[in-house]
Amino acid sequence: MATIVDVAQLAGVSTSTVSHVLNATRPVREDTRARVEAAIRATGYRRDSVARAMRRSRTDSIGLVVSDVTQPAFAEMVRGVEHEATAAGLTLLLANSGEDPARERRALEVLTERRVDGLIIAPVGRSHRKEMADIQQRGTPLVLMDRLGGLRADQVGVENTAPMRDVVLHLVEHGHRRIALAAGDASVPTIAERRQGYLDALDEAGIEADDSLILMGSGLAPDTRHSMTGLFQAPDRPTAVVAVSTESAVGVLEAARALDLHAPRDFAFAAFDGFPNADLFRPRISTITQPAYEIGSTAMQLLLGRLEDDTNSYRSVRLAPEITYRESCGCPD
């Protein structure tokens, strides 16, 4: 394997000159640069990125851990992070925790062992926040994305409580009083906040909350489908359903299809996040759409700011989602 010494000897220059050409640390005459670059190509020299990173105490890489990369919202967040990282000349290393605390812990271990310059994390429901605090203490800055709270760190997510409240009140105004919430795991901060918005709306409307209409659990589509099937078959089935995520929305719609129920004829329906290209569905689905790409982009910007100056106060950013009422909740086209 060629070394920097081989390149220097072939080009007839010092090793420091080769280093200046490689790292752009000092101006080099054009003819000298041309000889060095020709020598690099001739020898097939490749820089030892690990050794270089150790000398600079930087690896120019960022770790990103998300709880479920298959979900449309998280996929858009990843795109936002990647765009900003690439623009800053950084390599993105992505890990999917699969809503599993053990997988999340292992991903954080691997990424810190690779000496990433910083971390962006969308934590699982029962995340090991102490381990994240320990990572910070060891000098690796991190940013929480989407699922906020529980740690003194830069954070960015979406407003959850007020938009869910507004959607539920919209259904109440359309005459619905038995409104089901396809929720999921309340240990996930976003789910807990959206559930609170649902409860706030019922309280404001003078409707007593019925625990049988609040579907907790994993929030995965199969579990939601099973629970919703029972609700739909009950004599006093809900007249409206709100799903807190795309995953739970899938479970609701699968249960409805199996029973030949249709929105809005048989029940009004709305979802947080919803589906890409929601206008292609028939009926079109009412959604609370979070600016997922901007969340990812902002998370990376917060991390870049922390890498530049780690003495600034921690920032917590909440972006506003967009509520769109369509036919599925009973609104006209």
Question: Layout of SSEs?
Answer:
Elements: H1 4-11, H2 15-23, H3 30-43, H4 49-56, E1 61-66, H5 72-87, E2 91-96, H6 101-113, E3 118-121, H7 129-137, E4 142-145, E5 154-158, H8 161-173, E6 179-182, H9 189-205, E7 214-215, H10 221-233, E8 240-243, H11 246-258, E9 268-272, E10 286-289, H12 292-308, E11 316-319, E12 322-324
Parallel strand pairs: 1-2, 1-3, 3-4, 4-5, 5-11, 6-7, 6-8, 8-9, 9-10
Antiparallel strand pairs: 10-12
Q: What is the percentage of strand-forming residues?
A: 15-25%
Shape: elongated
Helicity level: 40-55%
By CATH, the superfamily of the largest domain comes out as: Response regulator
* Number of continuous helical runs: 12
Q: Which stretches of 5+ consecutive residues score pLDDT under 50?
A: 49-56
Largest sheet: 6 strands, parallel
What is the total number of structural domains? 3
Reported by name, the CATH topology of the largest domain is Rossmann fold
**Strand line-up of the largest beta sheet:** 2-1-3-4-5-11
The name of the CATH architecture of the largest domain is 3-Layer(aba) Sandwich
Overall pLDDT confidence: 88
Radius of gyration: 26 Å
Overall SS class: alpha/beta
Order of helices and strands: HHHHEHEHEHEEHEHEHEHEEHEE
N-C termini distance: 67 Å
- CATH structural class of the largest domain: Alpha Beta
